[in-house]
Amino acid sequence: MNDExxxxxxxxxxxxxxxNASVVKAVDSGPSVELQRPARHHHEDGFWGDLLTPIVxxxx
Length: 60
What we know:
The chain is α+β, with helices and mostly antiparallel strands. Helices cover 43% and strands 35% of the residues.
């Protein structure tokens, strides 16, 4: 793997860390949060990646 994919994977890992921290913060404030895959991005060379959307359920 060359430098560009390594760099973008590092960026993705950092973004996922922040996403997880945001989910914890949201859950701690009251609602339940589920991440679902509504779509998948496909590259012409056969690579793909899951896209996420939050489903938020407010508790009583």
